[in-house]
Amino acid sequence: WLWNGAANNGEGGYQAFNQNPSAESQKVAPIRGFFVSAAGTGTFSLTTDLQADGVVGSFARQTEWSKIDLSMSADSQSSETEIVYFDGATTGWDNGYDSTNWSSGSFQIFTSHVDTSTSQNLAIQSLPLGNFNDMVVPVGVNASAGQTITISVDTTNWPEGVNIYLEDVDNGSYTLLDGQNAEFTTLLDSNESGIGRFYIHTTSNSLGDEDLALTDVSIYASSRDNLRILGINSGQANVQMFDLMGKQVLNASFNGQSVNDVKLPNLNTGIYLVNLASDEGTVNKKIIIQ
Quick one: pLDDT at residue 61? Predict the structure, then answer.
């Protein structure tokens, strides 16, 4: 983390930096101070091999990546967070490629892991490139009642045909954040603190203010012990899971919300069949437990 005096409309703040490919050209000036997070005591060495002349080498291996810069503003306050997609990243904690917030502020926007087995407030979240339809990013907001907040996005190397929507669970809306309508604005009736109201959806489908159609349901294992179901936003639903021999390994019900997580039993690695039934219809899908 480095101090950025220009952040937050000149009031300053700590900005996170890590090893994700979008930060390839970022460098720390001589004598500039910074903080690092370590797992324990030890020696942190800066060798001459790390010195740079300020010019990005033309022979460096280029890594394909895409990025969303997500920002929130209200009055004179502002806060930013990054979501970076590249091969090799995961939906869980990627040491050196995910960065937590330096501190938790009363006005702040951040994200939390797509994989619910870990949960931290992230200034930078790294995610695998591709499979955009299967990844819904929880967005955390800290802000006070009575504030009119504006959430906007800026993208770099963003794939054509993949839309970015901000879901507001409180009013059931999906706002397309693109070049023509790149902002979401709302007046907060109560204090917002943390995860639960806002989510980023990246999808090649079109989402309306109504519930997602059952044909747009996504089902996948976000971890070995968690089945994630997206697209059932209300009503009662039942999910059953079978191995390839036809043996039932899961039978669970849930009340639909933006992100539905169902705890899985201890399963062997392999392919499983999932049957999901709701008031809107049924869907069957194969998933892989790795």
Answer: 43
Q: 213, 203 in Cβ contact below 8 A?
A: no
Of the candidates 155, 9, 153, the residue with the CA atom closest to the CA atom of residue 78: 9
Which candidate, 206, 132, 141, places its Cα nearest to that of 174? 206
With 0-12 / 13-18 / 19 or more C-beta atoms within 10 angstroms meaning exposed / middle / buried, residue 179 is exposed
Q: At residue 29, what is the residue type? A: A
65 SS3 class: strand
3-state helix, strand, coil in the chain (%, to 5): 5, 45, 50
- Say how far apart CA 132 and CA 122 lie, in whole Å: 19
The pair of structure tokens assigned to 263 is 């705890």
pLDDT at 9: 65
Query: CB count, 10 Å around CB of 124?
Result: 24
pTM of the entire structure? 0.68
Determine the Cα–Cα distance for residues 111 and 125; give it in Å rounded to an integer. Answer: 7
Length of the chain: 290
What is the spatial distance between Cα 262 and Cα 255, in angstroms, rounded to a whole number?
A: 11
Quick one: what percent of the chain has pLDDT higher than 70?
88
Rounded to whole angstroms, how far apart are CA atoms 246 and 240? 11
pLDDT tens-digit map of 190-203:
999 988 889 998 88
Closest CA to 237 of 223, 257, 218: 257
Amino acid identity for residue 10 in this structure: G
Cα angle at 54 between 102 and 124, to 5 degrees? 25
Q: Is the pLDDT of residue 29 over 90?
A: no
For residues 48 and 92, the answer to whether their CB atoms sit within 8 Å is no
Q: Is 284 helix (H, G, I), strand (E, B) or coil?
A: strand
* Higher per-residue pLDDT: 3 or 256: 256
